[in-house]
Amino acid sequence: MSTEENKASERRFHEEVWNKHNLGTVDELVAPDVVEHNPLLPGQGPIREGFKQSVETALSAFPDAQVTLDDLIAEGDKVVARWTAHGTHRGDFMGVPATNKQGHRRGDRYLPLPGWQANRDLASVGHPGRHAAARRHPRVGAGR
After folding, report:
1. pTM of this prediction?
2. Neighbouring C-beta atoms of residue 37, cutoff 10 Å
3. What is the chain's alpha carbon radius of gyration, rounded to the nearest angstrom?
4. Per-residue buried b or exposed e for 68-97, using 16+ beta carbons within 10 Å of the residue's own CB
5. Please, where are the H alpha helices in the chain?
6. CA–CA separation, 43 vs 21, rounded Å?
7. Are residues 108 and 126 in contact, defined by beta-carbon separation less than 8 angstroms?
8. Which residues of the chain have pLDDT under 70?
9. Are 3 and 75 in contact (CB under 8 A)?
10. Helix/strand number for the chain, H first, E second
């Protein structure tokens, strides 16, 4: 795939999965035995099914969740995506009852492509310890 096709695939993933809440797209774009080194949620199960379960958990707690791609950089078969998510905490999330407050989170991801169908590892990148700290102290319901 070309660099532009790789970027289009990542845009489609964000739009379909996170903004339209279409989890069927995960089956299409993510390899069944993908390895994710930075799980979406603590205790996330392995492979694609674990990823989908974590997405379902997040979307049930933040049913109006929307993700904006702030930057999308591609070179060869690699894509780096920097994103911002916004949503209202309307359901239990990681043991925290609904607060009905707006929250946001920023993140970035490094993806070897094409898609995740190449059965390669996924890894999130960013500030050291940021994701571990977020798991210990989730900013659920934190204001903007």
Report:
1. 0.73
2. 10
3. 15
4. ebeebebeeeebebbbebebbbbeebeeee
5. 3-13, 24-29, 47-61, 130-136
6. 22
7. yes
8. 37-40, 112-144
9. yes
10. 4, 5
Of 138, 8, 131, nearest to 69 (Cα)?
Answer: 8
pLDDT tens digits, residue range 77-86?
788 889 999 9
Note the pLDDT of residue 135.
Answer: 38
The β-bridge relationship of strands 102-112 and 78-88 is antiparallel
Give tens-digit pLDDT for 61-77.
999 999 999 999 988 87
The rounded distance, in Å, linking the Cα atoms of 119 and 116 is 6
What is the rounded CA–CA span in Å between residue 105 and residue 144?
9
Ramachandran assignment for 76, one of left (phi > 0), alpha (psi -120 to 50 degrees), beta (any other): left
Domain ranges of the chain: 3-136
Residue 67 backbone dihedrals phi, psi, to 5 degrees: -120, 135
78/50 Cα distance (integer angstroms): 23
Return the CATH class of domain 3-136. Answer: alpha beta
The answer to whether the CB of 17 falls within 8 A of the CB of 25 is yes
